[in-house]
Amino acid sequence: MTTGKPKQSWVPGVLIGIAVAYLFLVQYIPTINVFYQAFKKGIGPFFENLARIDFLHAAWLTLLLAVISIPINTVFGLCAAWAIARHKFPGRAIVLSIIDLPFSISPVVAGLMIVLLYGRQGWFGPWLQSHDIQIIFAFPGMVLATSFVSMPFVAREVIPVLEEFGKDPEEAAKTLGANEWQTFWRVTLPSIRWGLLYGLILTNARAMGEFGAVSVVSGNIASKTQSLPLFVEDAYKQYETEAAFSAAVLLALLAVVTLVVKEVLERKTRIKDVE
């Protein structure tokens, strides 16, 4: 005769049901509605909306923001990761906290900070005006905002990989006569490539989907300083719902591509760890 507490086999099912129901409410149903609203009048109107001049400009501007901010954050992330993972120095914890700052503050606050620094009444405003340089309500301000909110991803993905990799292979390469640059390209970079690519994918997704900070510094001027997320909001406010949802579908597809690439990189990382 066996004794003990009865197995509560229903608990996992209930927890899974709650999780699935929550995902349907906050993710799946809204996503399905976006696609329905975009295609409810047919494929023709959908592609007509994607051919609009203001949409094309917004898409091009979004791509340009990503193309500029990704290399900036890649260089910064690699330098920061190298300094933090390979050196112990006073203020290391503060540097890590600063890198994580975009995670902890609202993007709207980040945009306001940029305005307070580079706006007409900001700290650098008089100097910028005297040299006829416009940052706020112009493309440079959008680049600053996008670069700020997407700053942590490369550094945060590369730091643990460098720490796990250790210093021994790099020191062995230097012993064999390799200089710092050769050691980085032939030893360090191959070892962190999956973490670096993962950080680049996340940086790209954040850059293309940013709304709050860019909205504050851009002025949201159609065909001038309007990115794709801002186009969605502006078109919806103008009761151009089909155009808004068509642009939202494109952003959703970009998110799907990001998730697919992210999954591929995670699997390759797991395979490499097993090997």
Protein architecture, described:
The structure is a single chain. The chain has 275 residues and is an all-alpha fold. It is 79% helix and 0% strand. It is built from 14 helices and no strands. It starts with 9 loop residues before the first helix and ends with a helix. The mean pLDDT is 88.
What would you say about this model in short?
By secondary structure, the chain is mostly helical.
User: Total strand count, please?
Assistant: 0
SSE ordering: HHHHHHHHHHHHHH
In terms of structural class, how would the helical and strand content be classed?
Answer: mainly alpha
**Sheet with the most strands, sense and barrel status:** none
Strand fraction:
under 5%
Rg: 23 Å
List the helices and strands and how they pair.
Blueprint: H1 10-39, H2 43-50, H3 53-86, H4 92-99, H5 101-104, H6 107-118, H7 125-130, H8 139-149, H9 152-165, H10 168-175, H11 180-209, H12 212-218, H13 228-237, H14 241-274
Helix pairs in contact: 1-14, 2-14, 3-8, 3-9, 3-11, 3-13, 6-8, 6-12, 8-12, 9-11, 10-11, 11-14, 13-14
Distinctive features:
mainly alpha, 14 helices, globular
